[in-house]
Amino acid sequence: MSRENPYIDAVVVTFNRLEKLKSCISAINAQSITVRTIHVVDNNSTDGTREWLLENAKTLNITPHLLNHNGGGAGGFNAGIRAACNVGADWIWVMDDDVYPKSDCLKAVVNSPFFVQHTKGIKNIGFLSSRVEWTDGSVCLMNIPVSKWPPNGAFHEAPSALPCLSNSFVSCFITREGVERVGLPVKEFFIWYDDTEYTRRLSYNFECYYLDNSVVVHDTPNNNLPDYSQITHQNLWKYKCDIRNVAAFESAVGRRTDKLIALRYVLKNSWMAYKASKSLKIYRVLLLSGFRGIFWHYKKLIEYI
Q1: Where is the Glycosyltransferase 2-like domain (predicted)?
Q2: What is the spatial distance between Cα 283 and Cα 10, in angstroms, rounded to a whole number?
Q3: pLDDT confidence of residue 157
Q4: ω before 6 within 30° of 0 (cis)?
Q5: For residue 151, is it left (φ>0), alpha (ψ between -120 and 50) or beta?
Q6: Helices (H) and strands (E) in the chain, counts
Q7: Alpha-carbon gap, residue 53 to 263, rounded angstroms
Q8: Which of 57, 89, 220, 263 could cross-link to 84 by cystine, CB 3.0-4.6 Å?
Q9: Residue 105 in contact with residue 218, Cβ under 8 Å?
Q10: Could you give the 3-state DSSP secondary structure of residue 294?
Q11: CA-CA distances (angstroms) from residue 83 to 12, 40, 86?
Q12: What is the DSSP letter of 253?
């Protein structure tokens, strides 16, 4: 049964970025339409975030979830989406702590025909996603959704709603029905590609749309895509997750050609990283992580509410 005024809960995952988190919370609370609550999942921060959350929870409409370990983005969103569903949320608005929604971001979603139809009982939506801009107003390259039609290049040409296959967790509005059908994000992905894998699950089962008039700003250090030629020993851990997770996702489709696609991704990017870094250690680590991904049956780890 549908509610006349659906419960919309925000979920923000944070780790040691208190000042950005404050800006994110402020932007959510400044929306022209208010959320029911803001679930903030803290990945065991050590910069005063936990104390700030507890001190300001009541005045800032925050429901804190303080993890005793760093579960990465995947673990954080797993916990946050679960928590929102456990208290009856109809829509779960997920984002990182460096995302600042513009004041009418939520209103644009609520006024969309997809949200209106959902409220009337037509439960065919898995997620709706926002336009993500970088700090200078340009499109944030790492957060362009994958379209069904037209191709990606047309996404930001017209202020309209377009069907899409996958999206990042940078302002994604997920329906409760979607979570109940496909489960939660795989927390073992830790970071990178957990959002793509999860939203693909949703789009395989529901209609999913990008809304160009729902806008957020993503406050990242630069507006670049992940690039294996920029790998270092310091950021290697991130690329280990990426190469494993992408290989696992592609291999899980089940066709032999998909395993070949996964293998090509592993070999190509491992070699690119080696050419740039001249490090045999980096090369070996990426190859091993990628091969583990190809044979990783992660779907058995999917949790349901």
Answers
A1: 10-111
A2: 40
A3: 42
A4: no
A5: beta
A6: 10, 10
A7: 44
A8: 89
A9: no
A10: helix
A11: 12, 10, 5
A12: T
CA-to-CA separations, 220 to 152, 234, 303, in angstroms, rounded:
21, 18, 30
> What whole-number distance in Å separates Cα of residue 96 and Cα of residue 168?
10
Sign of the four-CA dihedral 173, 12, 152, 269: negative
Query: Whose structure tokens read 């579960």?
Result: 71
Q: Which two tokens stand for residue 304?
A: 């349901």
Q: How buried is 278 (Cβ within 10 angstroms: 0-12 exposed, 13-18 middle, 19+ buried)?
A: exposed
pLDDT at 149: 67
Beta-carbon contacts of residue 121 (< 8 Å; ≥ 6 apart): 1, 2
For residue 208, the surrounding DSSP H or E stretch is strand 207-218
- Beta-strand pair 8-14/37-42: parallel
> Are the C-beta atoms of 95 and 82 separated by less than 8 Å?
no
8-218: CATH number: 3.90.550.60
Instruction: Fill in the DSSP letter of residue 298.
Output: G
Rg of the chain taking only CA atoms, in angstroms: 19
Answering whether pTM is above 0.85, one says: yes
User: Mutual orientation of helices 236-252 and 194-205 as an angle, nearest 10°?
Assistant: 20
Ranges of residues in the chain with a pLDDT under 70 are 1-2, 149-159, 254
Instruction: Tell me the torsion sign for CA atoms 207, 30, 21, 220.
Output: positive
pLDDT at 138: 97
Q: CA 196, CA 303: separation in Å to the nearest integer?
A: 17
Residues 6+ apart with CB under 8 A from 99: 12, 24, 27, 132, 170, 171, 216, 217, 218, 219
